[in-house]
């Protein structure tokens, strides 16, 4: 039996790594794994140039996409399957992973496939689009469940330092109770007799209306931020004291606010790709502001401006000077790992914006902090 570590190196290196096993053949399961890896990575020109030659699924045992997906689900752990699926749709643009109805009917939804659906849904016929929607619904539902918890936590009322009428264990005020009952301490038993337990009262902070205006760049590189913006907007929708707007833009501006309460429908309407006119979107967002000092304008983009950068800076400066909070986020996703035009980002920061990246939970906390004032 081959050493498992050496076998993994053989699978990693492909056929050139055969020396790892000293000429021994792969066992049947490992050979099936190797064939599945060959099917995907054998098409990589960069690997060929570096001498990592794979068969690319040639020969009589060549796999179809459908068969390959079945094989990797059987042969690899879930985390590896998701990575292989992600490489298939993002790195090698194997679109039939998300456009073949037979494949879609059996594939396990995950975030990488959601991104692939959003990028390729314009290629789908109505039947395939209905199946693809299953992926969108499942992954968006998972994201909603996670983020809704963070949003609720951010907006939970603080405990007031006064006695409350409701007696609940979680609101028991130990310090004040001990102080109020010190006269009932019994030295002979070493016990404090509690006659009057005291409790905190939980009060919901008084919330005055705030506008949260999300302006989202729908260029292809921003797909993760588009997804998380839709889910974040849905979680903020309907919260007391918050009115949420969601606007998508490329060279055009599309107000999607009417669909904010249904992030699945919203994402199915998003059209990824195209040029970018950030200044135009910022001007539209500025036009939505009703009470400047009670508005948070969140501009989500990589800031590679295809429009007029001078106009963009002027609009952002105007928003900041009138008292609106302006966030210019190069990423709104779970990694918050931005890639953006840093020169323009610096100019926006100089104009009064907060520039950086946030996770959806961090954005919810930012909104809650200002809304609760």
UniProtKB/TrEMBL annotation:
Q: Where is the VWFA domain?
A: 209-368
Segments forming a coiled coil: none
- Put simply, this protein is called VWA domain containing CoxE-like protein
What organism does this protein naturally occur in?
A: Nonomuraea wenchangensis
């Amino acid at each position: 039996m081959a050493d498992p570590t050496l076998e993994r190196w053989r699978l990693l290196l492909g056929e050139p790594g055969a020396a790892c096993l000293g000429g021994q053949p792969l066992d049947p399961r490992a050979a099936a794994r190797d064939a599945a890896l060959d099917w995907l990575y054998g098409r990589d020109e960069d690997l060929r140039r570096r001498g990592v030659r794979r068969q690319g699924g040639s020969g009589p045992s060549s796999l179809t996409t459908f068969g390959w997906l079945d094989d990797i689900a059987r042969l690899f752990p879930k985390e590896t399957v998701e990575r292989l699926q992600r490489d298939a749709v993002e790195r090698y643009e194997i679109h039939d992973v998300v456009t073949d109805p037979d494949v879609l009917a059996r594939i396990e939804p995950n975030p990488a496939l959601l991104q692939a659906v959003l990028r390729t849904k314009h290629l789908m016929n109505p039947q395939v689009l209905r199946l693809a929607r299953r992926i969108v619904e499942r992954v968006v539902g998972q994201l909603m469940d996670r983020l809704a918890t963070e949003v609720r936590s951010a907006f939970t009322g603080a405990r007031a330092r006064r006695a409350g009428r409701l007696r609940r264990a979680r609101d028991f005020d130990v310090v004040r109770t001990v102080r109020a009952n010190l006269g009932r301490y019994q030295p002979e038993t070493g016990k404090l007799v509690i006659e009057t337990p005291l409790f905190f009262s939980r009060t919901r902070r008084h919330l005055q209306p705030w506008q949260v205006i999300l302006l989202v760049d729908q260029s292809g590189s921003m797909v993760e931020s588009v997804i998380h913006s839709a889910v974040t907007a849905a979680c903020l929708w309907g919260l007391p004291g918050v009115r949420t707007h969601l606007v998508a833009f490329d060279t055009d501006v599309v107000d999607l606010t009417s669909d904010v309460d249904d992030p699945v429908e919203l994402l199915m309407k998003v059209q990824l790709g195209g040029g970018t006119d950030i200044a135009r979107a910022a001007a539209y967002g500025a036009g939505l502001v009703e009470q400047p000092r009670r508005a948070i304008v969140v501009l989500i983009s990589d800031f590679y401006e295809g429009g007029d950068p001078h106009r963009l800076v002027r609009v952002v400066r105007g928003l900041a000077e009138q008292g609106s909070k302006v966030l210019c986020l190069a990423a709104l996703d779970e990694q918050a790992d931005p890639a953006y035009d840093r020169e323009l980002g610096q100019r926006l920061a100089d104009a009064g914006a907060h520039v950086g990246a946030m996770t959806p939970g961090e954005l919810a906390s930012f909104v809650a902090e200002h809304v609760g004032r």
